[in-house]
Amino acid sequence: MVLPSATFSIGELRKITGIQYYEERMLFTTLFLRHRRRRLVYITSLPVDEAIVDYYLGFLPDPDDARSRLDLVSLGDDSDEPLTHKLLRRPDAIGRVRELADGHDTYVLPFNVTDAEGRLADALDLPFYGAGPDQAWMGSKTGSRQVARRAGVAVPEGSEGHHSLAEVEGAVQAVRRNQPVAEAAVIKLNEGFSGQGNVIVDLNGPLSPLPGSNTTFCGAEESWSSYPEKVARQGAVVEELLRHEGMASPSVQMRIAPSGVHEVLSTHDQILGGTANQVYLGCRFPARDTYRLAIQDAATRVAEVLSAEGIIGSFGIDFLVVPDGGGAQAGDAQAGAPAVYLSEINLRMGGTTHPFWMTRLATEGEYHTQSGELLALGQAAQSGPRCYLATDNLKSERLVGLRPTQVIDAVDRAGLGYDDGTRTGATLHLLGAVPGFGKLGTTCIGGSPEEADELYREVVATLEGLGAPRSSP
Question: What is the pTM of this model?
Answer without folding.
Answer: 0.90
